Amino acid sequence: MQVGIIGLPNVGKSTIFNVITKANAVVANYPFCTIEPNTGVISVADNMLEGLSKIGESAKLTFASIQFMDIAGLVQGASRGEGLGNKFLSHIREADIVVHVVRCFTDNNIASQGPVDPVADAQTVNAELLLADLETLQRAREKLKSAARTGDKQAAKYLDYSQELADRLNQEEKADTASWPQDAADWLSQLNLLSLKPVIYVANMDETDQSRQYFEKLAVWAGLENTVKFYAQLEWELADVDAEERQQYVQELGIEGGPELLVNRCYRLLDLITFYTINKNEARAWPLKKQSKAIQAAGKIHTDMQKGFIRAEVISAEELLKLGSFTKARETGKLRLEGRDYIVKDRDVIQVRFAV
Ligand code: GDP
Fold it and tell me: Which of 10, 152, 231, 337 is buried most, with the most CB atoms less than 10 Å from its CB?
């Protein structure tokens, strides 16, 4: 699961990436050359895993993780190949969701494209994504047209849908494809359009009232539920401070947001839930797509478990923590047996029974 960090130059993307990777114990970090994005696999904070590891007397804890990419290089005209152009766009294509950073701080020493204007900046970036999508769509439509001419009924149908989509994109409207039939939606998802990716807007703040006004403006435009504050510079300065001292600063300065919140918001936007496995070796949190079945959870752990799946023993982490042991859970009948089609719930603890 990949999160792509995008935004205009000098808005604080790399600083935010660095804060997140530093604050969330990077599992792996491979810096590529400048045009390749920096990638960091970041563990997701979890308030139950430690308790579960005690129950399992587990030697180690493994947190769920998601991958962040710091994608540099977007300038106005990127869709026409300006700046790092297509390279940049192809990196965004790899992302499942997008963190779109906009500048809400004032600092005359840091070059920007003009006066601080978070909404205009966001629109500049979005316009590039949209233009790139229209091109992608145009190419796809050419193919559909020739297929439709040879009598391909399905292509003709997709052509209608793609017309509707192109119209909407042209009017800079979000395409609402929820009502599309499954096959058309599948066709669309293959196009992997940039402007349809779920997005969180991150306002890079300073501590001034002015900055808060910028944030308000952004939140009105993007929707408060899609907007997060992040004090990149300040967070970077606090990155080496211990947790208690940090908490003091955070309270004194009245800052909200921060790396943990952003990572959690990304996790939710990726449509992920967490399930746990516990044994003597390891207590582990696994990310899983919402609405996945037990058999899919088993497959995440090991392909053998998927192939030889018999059943799963399931209990909610909360309940297990309350009871304090698997023995107790079993005695009280709280450890349920579930089949392969069981829809895994957020924070289920799962033990897969399987035969190889
Ligand atoms: P990027 O080009 O979007 O990746 O931006 P960087 O993270 O490299 O930041 C560009 C410059 O702005 C650097 O000198 C940062 O130290 C500075 N910067 C980043 N965030 C802030 C902030 O919140 N306030 C101020 N004053 N400077 C910042």
Answer: 231
